[in-house]
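On clarity, I found the account of how folds are encoded harder to follow than it need be. Since the whole study asks how a given chain folds, the encoding of that fold should be made plain. For the editor and my fellow referees, an illustration may be useful. An entry of this sort, consisting of the sequence and the corresponding backbone structure tokens, reads as follows:

:::
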Amino acid sequence: MRTKFRSVIIICAAMAWMSDMALAQPPSSESTALTNPEYHDINTALKALLVQQDPRLQVIFDKYPNYNPIPITAARAVVIAPTGGPGAAPKPANQPEARTDQNSQTAHAQLLAKAKAGGIDIYFEGDSITRRWGASDYPDYLANWKQNFFGWNAADFGWGADTIQNILWRLNNGELDGVNPKIIVLLAGTNNVGGTPPMGSNDAKVADVTSGIKAILDIMQAKAPNAVIILTAITPRNDRGTNAVMPTINKINANLAQLADGKKIRYLNINDKLADQNGKLLEGMMNASDQLHPTLKGYQIWADALKPIFTELLGPPAKTDHAPPPTGDPSAMTPVHTT
């Protein structure tokens, strides 16, 4: 009974924290609804706390991997929606939306400075999958980036946890202005898909994500009309050890292939080297902790598919590189003040 009581206290405390987080947000026209990855992270942390209190719960969580201590409807109900009312739906994927947290705004300022620095021939855009590869706070991945792309003047403009809407906002707010890259590599959409399949038909989700990526392509072509865009298929993910969202990802990728003309927009799908035909990840391709972000082995698969295209369009890499220095997560680089 005491263990059950502690478990209830943990869940209630988590709900109170989310409520306080919502109330602390200033009034804004921007949505602050929980994204699927954020909701998943909250419940993952809660499960770990509950198992720590009562190890017997691990058997239940293993038996029912899709069970979450806090239902998504309850989690979203405590977060302020765009109108200030609870439970409002997120913006369509083809509508820009800002990240209002200070860390994301600082990162945006750093990426604006990187864009203005110039010297960029290859522009990578996306979420955390893209960001980690060329980020200063992931030194092993950055070493792999330099090993593969040094001499091609490549710069990384990915930002962690971004949805398509967030990427659209960044592109609409200066991060591609005046850069004039020769190649753009785009990988986006996994944070819109999330780790849980939609209830019922996935047609609406597929159409929404497709529309959002089409909007990204449109603004990229408007701001960098001379660039060849390499549209990378959404990579496989096995949240909680299941491939439940792979049918949705596969349908979206089939649509993305239709957006490419083979000239100004080229479609690149490396998923058959990352997962089997059923969408189950191949050994060592993604981080074991989340089964979403690539390992060095996974990134090398992507690099091996990109480099022949870079060589075709730009020639072999030069012996010098003129891209701006890599950026990273501002929160990971905050200096420690001592007294």
